[in-house]
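Thread title: Can someone regenerate the structure for this chain?

I was given the following input by a collaborator and told the matching structure tokens would be attached. They weren't. Posting the sequence so someone can regenerate them.
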Amino acid sequence: MNKEISETDWMIMGMIHTYKVLDKTMKDKYGKHDMNDVDYVYLTEMQRRNIQNPTALSDEFPYVFLEINTSENDNVQIGMMNVFTLLDKQKKKGENLNTLDCEYLINSLVSELQSPELVEKYDDLFVQINKEDKDDLEDLK
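Best answer:
Regenerated them for you:
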């Protein structure tokens, strides 16, 4: 693990990443997306499957590792799992998830980071699309 970035910061960055993806989806100009129709349980399970050692993961929300886990990937995944599970709970309560204020949620999480400058490095950490891939994606529009 990058020694300069704490396990907690990686988890929070996973949460921020999730809200950024949701925000981008909600603002997508190519279609209207209903956040209430998303299967958040499925998304939670997909993140769980990406964890290298899922047996070290708690069984209940909020998900935590029961032993030290220094994998950046695993800590990002657990942050995403917690957001998706929280959204599923809100959905079950009948809350309208189309009104999520992702920007507010992201800013709130940034204040919890030990290293808030990580958000400035977001593109370097999470968005890894090179020029060739961008050209391929432009053809799909």
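Residues 50 and 77 are 7 Å apart (CA to CA).
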